[in-house]
Design goal:
Elements (H helix, E strand, L loop, with lengths): L6 H13 L2 H8 L3 H15 L4 E3 L4 E3 L1 H21 L7 E8 L7 H11 L3 E8 L1 H9 L5 E5 L8 E6 L1 E6 L9 E5 L5 H12 L4 E6 L2 H10 L5 E4 L7 E3 L12 E7 L4 H19 L2
Parallel strand pairs: 3-4, 3-5, 8-9
Antiparallel strand pairs: 1-2, 5-12, 6-12, 7-10, 7-11
């Protein structure tokens, strides 16, 4: 008799593949890491192949795992069709995200959330941290993903960002004034940088202001000046010049998720959202 595939194990495999982590997959599924490992071992036993290469530092798909992944996605999609679930009432979720948190991984994160809850309509707003938390507090956003604000202690810790002073490899930074790139006057990261420069008695000048984090990164890559930035957002062509210029260390920032109370289905989706952010931040 041919073995049968446990679709919950197939789902676990897809999550491990997408999130590249047993820990984050377990969080998204609401299971223990040991529970996910057991499901994967049983799945590998059923298909008669090793699907994952496990090392202490990372999880990667084996060659057979790469081949099995599209079939696994097809199985899960077929299950949804076979269940012929009646149309759900319209559900939507408004997610406000800090501009310094929303990195290049955001499309992948949103795709992961949509895959686990395709009936949920997502509204995503990207703004500065203080505006994001204000939208959440005013009831204009259901979820806020933001740098921790002041002494505020509510919310769920997702990860911690480390910051540096970044400039292009060929930038000329030998003038008397440090050419500083900031996002806007409302940006907390820029305010912190200016305060630290003042305390260290380092003279500076506005070299570029405004346009959002992506535009500020483009300005830094062009050689205009120095940009205080989370290390995970530093793109190719940017280097940390803080040490070379004897600039004061920038403090890290905890990235928090604030969310309202929801039904069980949306709560499960939020677990996937949190796990996807953690997984993205953990990638080298």
């Amino acid at each position: 008799m041919r073995p049968h595939l446990d679709l919950s194990a197939v789902e676990a495999f897809v999550l491990v593949a997408d999130l590249r982590s047993f820990t984050h997959a377990a969080e998204a599924l609401g299971l223990t890491q040991a529970g996910v490992s057991l499901k994967l071992r049983r799945l590998e036993g059923a298909v008669g192949r090793r699907l994952l290469d496990r090392t202490p530092r990372q999880v990667r798909l084996s060659t057979d795992g790469e081949a099995f992944l599209p079939h696994a996605r097809t199985l899960l999609a077929a299950q949804e069709l076979a269940l012929m679930t009646p149309p759900e009432p319209e559900r939507e979720l408004t997610i406000a995200i800090s501009d310094h948190v929303a990195g290049p991984e955001l499309p992948e994160i949103l795709a992961r959330v949509h895959a686990c809850d395709p009936a949920l309509m997502l509204k995503v707003r990207v703004n500065y941290s203080r505006n994001v938390i204000a939208q959440f507090d005013d009831g204009l956003a259901d979820v806020a993903v933001v740098r921790r604000q002041g002494k505020r202690r509510d919310g769920e810790l997702l990860f911690e960002d480390q910051y540096g002073w970044f400039a292009s490899v060929g930038a000329r930074l030998d003038g008397k004034l440090l050419p500083l790139i900031t996002v806007t006057d409302e940006c907390g990261v820029g305010e912190t940088a200016i305060r630290l420069l003042a305390a260290a008695k380092i003279p500076w000048i506005d070299a570029f202001l405004g346009g959002g984090v992506a535009t500020a990164i483009a300005a830094a890559r062009s050689g205009i000046g120095v940009l205080p930035l989370p290390r995970r957002l530093a793109t190719a062509g940017l280097i940390d010049v803080g040490g070379a210029l004897a600039l004061p260390p920038l403090p890290g920032a905890q990235v928090m998720m604030h969310a309202r109370r929801f039904d069980a289905q949306t709560t499960a989706t939020l677990r996937v959202l949190a796990a996807a952010f953690r997984s993205a931040a953990a990638q080298p």
